[in-house]
Design brief:
Length: 1277
């Protein structure tokens, strides 16, 4: 049974209840059981560290993963989702080093690796429970019980297998490499790790002299921002092709050599120096110089040729002196250049006087024990004291910091185990082309460029808590054994291990194959944790030791997703290893998200507290709101998002509350249908598609178009197109379909129409919750659990959760593009009309005479004509005119230049501006069609011109006062803003209705509650009470409960609310009491009273010049103080014009008799008319106007020959038209001849004068009253 839906909702609290429900039915596991046997969809989850709590980046990536995998499940796949943990490496060790005060390797050796790793093991899952809680709270379905951790022995064994495969392929070697090095963590970092954390810093910048051996008194000048590398200087480097100068400093008479283009680095003006000689850098090659420090001076005579000038093209004219000092073990280019020149060799000992903690060691005795960064100032002082410092300053530049310790990195040569990546660069590029990335530019540019410049990968770390590198070597390095499994290790060592960490592996030896040689010992390094995470596709299933077929059948993975920072991290390591192992890509599809930043654009920082705690946001707004906020943003296009809490709040306000209210409105009216009409509602899919109502057909068509779009775009993993369309659909459903069909859904159009509308709304809601389920899993579950009871013939076992259902397929035969186009244009017209009302501050409650819509194509007008009823209602106008004839209204385009083009045009601006202002309407229409226009040789686009519509001709001033104009694309709207008194009165009545409805909401009174509204107006006399009393029947019909003057209140029923509110200067005191008044029928409406005419039917007054119908009220009373039960509607005007639509006819009926807001039908000889009626065949007939609830009215419609109302014929431009002088019969429309002339001119859209004579001006007078004018012909001349 469907439960009533409360008026308000706390989304976060409801989500907590849904979590309990999922737990109760074991939802995730149940969904996996239901999909067992279906095609597999493989997903890899990148493992996070559990040493910190999840942040918005984790939540974003997790949401993307959850959406895609839920969607795959709901589209016929079996999707296993296992959570993984990265448990080794620097993040863990750094925490232990901080807590235990460990400064370097010596401290670890003192406490023992076993004890150190035991401490690491203790904290490795410190926040695991919090992670599981937060991930589950976000609605993500993933398996924590069957997780993988990189510390599991079976995971580590697969890593050994991966490494041995690479080893046997010759892809592993040991060597030195200058790498980014964290002195705080005592370990090198990979290039992609070092690129994660650049900061703006101020460093010293010094120019130092290097006296030449063969030119006494001449020094080469080198520049550096790392003075601490100078004690290790072994060479200088210049660019052979560039110009250098020998220059004398006038102030000191000293002679220096530097690049000519860089003289400004030392001298402020040309007067400070004299150039003695110019030459190419090649001239300096081979020159030797005096070492800066004595520590390695012996190398000058050792045969290596240290302390000489080298050449290389990496030296540029962009900074420094154009001469770079070379410390080969502290710079990549330095190492390469010095190695090529023979100053160092690959097999020699490193010249690296800096330990793993970044402190100087011997032979750099002057600074031994000092951290290199701290030593900078002391080195500069020593250089100054010995006369080698030429200039000292500072430089602000971007510098890499350790992502874990937040300390500056240095570049330092370290011995390491490498994977040969450079040689497989083309294979990496080829395999990358086999993958699909969203967005594509990340794959082609950022990632593709990284692959093209791929370097050998240093996979070893001189650390402790990690997977040991399984290499055992002899002391001389001649014998090397790589172990690929626990079984192989047992075979070689005789010992079987159940844990592969260092404390268990380091002591094991492998006997040498050479007799008498000592056993082989394991190398000390462990794997970089990136090697472990890159191995996760294999290690998570213990491949190849277990699950071999299962893995090989599902590799590569169908889908992965992470942030853009992983392009040089996990995405890269996955591709390198899969290429090296199988020459395959590791995945097929990838979504890359951008970074979530603080609201000020800075990186989110716990220290700065510049972002709200994620769980506080979730507890405040709910997980669905946070999910939708994140994925409906640029971040899913790999752009950055500035997180703003108010953005999450807006999702509640703009999406969830309207959606929830539409759902609540459906349930309310479902209950009314069953209670009042006795109809048991059961959703039958086919019957929901039978409605002929155009708005029903539109929302059904639009829903099917949406489903088609979602399936197409999700197949392409384009969340950034899908989510905005889903959000827009909520707006279309709530702000267009539901709002424009409220009366139908409430039953105002009769039982059948209400049932059709409710079937349609349910169909859309039910499709919507299924397609939205992956995106907003909680709210969709909440709605589904209630709505499921209305669905017939559901598949057994799937009704417990919306997440057990399939995403609905699009029914393409229900897509009607013409209706969608018509509604789209209608929306444009309505939105433009609202803009125009706002411009004149005309509230929508106040009716206006007319809206004119001008389009270029007749087909578009015909489509829009079907929406006439809705345009009239939404804009609250009495008439709609559709035309393609813009010129007849004197409307033309004019243009002005956008001020921003001034910078582009510069001197031409004035001439171009003048030319733009003279552009004709024809030229501007062509500009709109083409999208560009040439003005004095300058191409103008849409952003360069501002277009305005203006009235021209003799009536320009008059029309500008009468109409407001606005255009969008091909739609031009003219809104008549001149109100008559009846419109102002009706607007005031609508204001009163609005005050009543707001008060009902404040008192929590639902539409089905039996209440009476009593009113009192202070002061009791005047304009406001007159209008409210006159419109009482209208107000009562709108609020659908008794509306009574407080003076008539004799009830002692409970008062629910009493409040005084302002209404146009008067006080409207409203009281809502429980129960209906005695005269109010049980059906919730006053008893229908036959309104058969007490006066005899009027005699026909002759036939107008145009087709017409007469109207006769039966069972209804006219409203708005209108008197008369007979009226006339002209079906076209002038003769030969297009027939009005049925919707227009119904609106004319409401206008004639004041029936706005009331339900009625038209019958012809007892046959009910609808929109299929051919109005041209009704000419001259009399139609009966009856209430919907009294469709069985039996009054005999009188036969009337001719119009029941008096009229005049009007001739204009050879065409005959008709103007009614009264309507209804006896209700005079004009007060004077001037009033009549003004309204006739508006009606026929002309500035011509009204005359009683065709050839000369003869004023029309009212001297003989209406009878004197009736049936006469007047002329517009």
């Amino acid at each position: 049974m469907v439960e009533p839906v409360p008026e308000s909702i706390d989304f976060s609290q409801e989500e907590a209840k849904i979590l309990e429900y999922w737990k109760k039915i074991d939802a995730f596991k149940t969904s996996l059981k239901l999909s067992k046997g279906k095609p597999r969809y493989t997903f890899y989850d990148g493992p996070p560290f559990a040493t910190g709590l999840p942040h918005y980046g984790h939540i974003l990536a997790g949401t993307i993963k959850d959406i895609v995998t839920r969607y795959a499940h709901q589209n016929g796949f079996h999707v296993e989702r296992r959570f993984g943990w990265d448990t080794h490496g620097l993040p863990v060790e750094y925490e232990i080093d901080k807590s235990l005060g460990i400064k370097g390797p010596e401290d670890v050796m003192k406490m023992g690796i076993a004890n150190y790793n035991a401490e690491c093991r203790k904290i490795v899952m410190r926040y695991a429970e919090d992670w599981e809680t937060i991930v589950n709270r976000m609605g993500r379905w993933i398996d924590f019980e069957n997780d993988y951790k990189t510390l599991y022995p079976w995971f580590m064994e697969s890593i050994w297998w991966v490494f041995k495969q690479l080893f046997e392929k010759g892809l592993v070697y040991r060597g030195f490499k200058v790498m980014p090095f964290s002195t705080a963590c005592s370990t090198p970092l990979s290039n992609f790790e070092s690129g994660q954390n650049y900061k703006e810093v101020v460093d010293p910048a010094v120019i130092v002299s290097f006296p030449l051996d063969d030119e006494p008194g001449v020094s080469i000048l080198a520049w550096t921002t790392t003075p601490w590398t100078l004690p290790s200087n072994l060479a200088l480097c210049v660019n052979a092709a560039m110009d250098y100068v020998r220059v004398k400093e006038k102030a000191t008479e000293k002679v220096y050599i530097m690049m000519e283009a860089r003289l400004s680095a030392l001298f402020k003006s040309e007067e400070e120096y004299e150039i003695l000689d110019r030459f190419k850098g090649e001239t300096l090659k081979g020159k030797t110089y005096l070492p800066l420090f004595p520590y390695y001076a012996n190398l000058k005579t050792s045969g290596s040729g240290a302390f000489r000038v080298l050449t290389d093209s990496y030296v540029t004219e962009e900074s420094g002196t154009g001469i770079v000092h070379q410390a080969p073990y502290f710079g990549e280019d330095d190492y390469r250049v010095c190695l090529a020149a023979g100053i160092i060799s690959r097999d020699q000992d490193m010249i690296c006087p800096v330990d793993d903690g970044g402190r100087f060691i011997l032979p750099v005795s002057d600074f031994a024990g000092q951290h290199v960064k701290d030593a900078d100032k002391n080195i500069i002082k020593m250089l100054k004291d010995c006369g080698r410092l030429v200039n000292a300053g500072t430089i602000k530049h971007s510098y890499p910091f350790c992502w874990r310790s937040e300390t500056p990195l240095i570049y330092r040569a370290v011995p390491s185990w490498f994977i040969r990546v450079e040689q497989m660069s083309q294979q990496l590029l080829d395999n990358n082309q086999k993958t699909y990335w969203v967005p594509d530019f990340v794959k082609e540019k950022r990632f593709g460029n990284w692959l093209r410049d791929a370097r050998d990968w240093a996979v070893s770390r001189n650390r402790y808590w990690g997977t040991p590198i399984p290499i055992w070597t002899s002391e001389d390095g001649e014998e090397v054994v790589c172990v690929g499994s626990i079984a192989e290790l047992k075979e070689l060592t005789g010992i079987e291990l159940t844990d592969l960490h260092r404390e268990n592996v380091d002591g094991l030896t492998i006997p040498s194959k050479i007799a008498g040689r000592p056993p082989l010992r394991r190398v000390s390094e462990v794997f970089d944790c990136w090697f472990e995470s890159g191995s996760m596709p294999y290690a998570q299933v213990h491949y190849p030791f277990e699950n071999r077929k299962e893995f090989e059948d599902c590799f590569p993975a169908d889908f992965i997703a992470e942030g853009i920072d992983q392009t040089r991290g996990w995405f890269y390591t996955l591709l390198v290893l899969s290429t090296a192992l199988f020459n395959k890509p590791p995945f097929k599809n990838l979504i890359v998200n951008g970074l979530v930043l603080a609201s000020d654009g800075q990186k989110m920082s716990k220290k700065k507290k510049n972002y709200p705690d994620p769980m506080l946001v979730v507890n405040k707004f709910g997980a669905d709101a946070l999910r939708l906020y994140l994925i409906n943003s640029p971040v899913v296009r790999a752009e950055n998002l500035r997180f703003k809490e108010e953005g999450v709040r807006d999702i509640i306000k703009d999406v969830f509350l309207p959606w929830y209210n539409a759902y609540r409105f459906f349930v309310q009216n479902l209950e009314r249908l069953e209670r009042e009409d006795g109809i048991k509602f059961v959703y039958e899919e086919e019957s929901s598609n039978l409605s002929t109502n155009i708005m029903d057909r539109w929302i059904i068509s639009y829903t099917q178009s949406l489903l088609l779009f979602v399936h197409q775009e999700m197949a392409a993993y384009r969340l950034y197109t899908v989510v905005p369309r889903l959000v827009r659909f909520v707006d279309y459903l709530t702000n267009w379909y539901v709002r424009m069909n409220r009366k139908r859904l409430k039953g105002d159009g009769g039982k059948d129409d209400c049932h059709h509308a409710l079937q349609t709304l349910f169909s859309v809601l039910f499709s919507m919750i299924r397609v939205m389920a992956p995106f907003t899993p909680f709210l969709t579950e909440l709605m589904y659990r209630n709505l499921r009871h209305l669905v017939a013939n559901q598949k057994a076992g799937t009704t417990e959760s919306v997440h057990f259902l399939s995403t609905p397929e699009s029914k393409k035969h229900l897509i009607d593009t013409k209706i969608e186009n018509a509604v789209s244009r209608m929306q444009v017209v309505i939105e433009l009309g609202r803009v125009l009302r706002d411009r004149r501050t005309l509230p929508i409650k106040y009716p206006l005479p007319e809206v004119i819509v001008i389009l270029r194509e007749q087909e578009s007008l015909d489509e829009l004509r079907t929406m006439e009823k809705y345009i009239l209602e939404e804009l609250n106008v009495r008439a709609l005119k559709l035309t393609t004839d813009k010129d007849s209204f004197g409307v033309s385009l004019r243009a002005e230049p956008d001020h921003r083009i001034g910078a582009r045009l510069k001197g031409q601006f004035k001439a171009v501006m003048a030319a733009i202002k003279t552009l004709t309407d024809e030229q501007l229409q062509k500009f709109l069609a083409d999208g560009q226009l040439d003005v004095l040789g300058n191409v103008m686009g849409p952003e360069d011109l501002r277009l305005f519509y203006q009235f021209t001709g003799d009536r320009a001033v008059e029309l500008a006062q009468q109409y407001e104009t606005q255009a969008e694309k091909d739609v031009l709207v003219l809104l008549n803003v001149v109100q008559d008194q009846s419109m102002k009165d009706e607007g005031l009545a609508r204001e009163a209705i609005n005050l009543v409805q707001k008060l009902r909401k404040e008192a929590h009174v639902t539409p089905s509650d039996a209440v009476t509204v009593y009113y009192e107006i202070v002061p009791p006399t005047g304009y406001v009470p007159d209008v409210v009393n006159t419109f009482s029947a209208y107000i009562e019909a709108a609020i659908k409960v008794p509306w009574r003057a407080v003076a008539t209140n004799k009830s002692s029923a409970k008062v629910l609310i009493n409040k005084s509110q302002k209404l146009q200067g008067a006080d409207l005191v409203l009281t809502i009491q429980e129960g209906f008044t005695a005269d109010w029928a049980k059906t919730g409406a006053p008893p229908a009273k036959k309104a058969h005419l007490s006066n005899p039917a009027p005699i026909g007054r002759g036939k107008p010049s145009v087709p017409f119908v007469n109207l006769c009220l039966d069972g209804l009373k006219p409203g708005y103080d209108i008197v008369g039960n007979y009226g006339t509607v002209l079906l076209c005007n002038p003769a030969g014009a297009s027939m009005i639509s049925f919707e227009r006819l119904m609106n004319e009926v409401a206008r004639v008799f004041g029936l706005h807001g009331r339900s009625y039908m038209l019958t012809n000889s007892g046959v009910t008319l609808d929109s299929t009626a051919d109005l041209s065949k009704l000419d001259g007939t009399t139609l009966t106007v009856v209430p919907v609830v009294a469709a069985d009215a039996t009054a005999q419609t009188p036969s009337i020959d001719g119009s029941t109302c008096r009229f005049v014929h009007v001739k204009i431009d050879g065409k005959m038209g008709t103007v009614l002088l009264e309507n209804p019969s006896g209700y005079k429309l004009f007060d004077s001849s001037n009033d009549m002339e003004r309204k006739i001119r508006v009606m026929f859209e002309t500035s011509k004068k009204l005359s009683a004579d065709e050839k000369k001006m003869l004023p029309v007078t009212f001297s003989d009253g209406l009878d004197g004018l009736h049936a006469k012909t007047l002329y517009l001349i």
